[in-house]
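Quick check before the chapter quiz. The format below is the same one you will see on the exam, so make sure you can read both the input and the output lines.
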Amino acid sequence: MTNTPFEAFPASLVWKNTPVHTELLGSRSLSITAAGHTDWFIDPLDRAWNKDDAPVALFTPPDGEFVFSAKIRVAFASTFDAGVIQLREKTDLWGKLCFEYSPQNKPMIVSVVTRGKSDDCNSTIIDGNEVYLRVAVRPEVVAFHYSTDGAFWHMVRYFTLGRHEHLSVGLSAQSPCGPGCEVLFSEISYRAGIIRDHRSGE
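Here is the expected output.
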């Protein structure tokens, strides 16, 4: 793993799992290309599907309360291709908010929370290959949101990972069933503080 300074983040990025390709595109954009058959998922039924090999650029947030977001464009080709914002407390305690290609060939908002095993929840279908994703974090509380315009936010999930002692946050690409997936993260934004209402997204 290598540390990568990047202006849009409050701390250096540390790569967990090396991407096929990555590129900084200005001060607030980053592209990540995942290799084929990479994922981040602990299947509650299939013990063989215990995956932690998707490339992710992680940083350690300096604040206990923060909001992190990005516009995500995914070159969808295969089922479960996705661009992802991840929150990682430890190997078997984490959450991810995905813009993912469904088995019905529809771009979709998907969230996964893992506490030993993964809890997978499909949400809203999105028209097109771009969307905004956001995580809002407070001590012991996390909210996931999405937006089609970067202004009006919809709640996807409201949950807890318990007390955050080793929390890291990052951007990831995955291609569990395909030969690889390229994701562009742009308009990346980090700010300390909270949003007014987790449920309304304001």
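If your answer matched, good. The longest strand covers residues 180-192.
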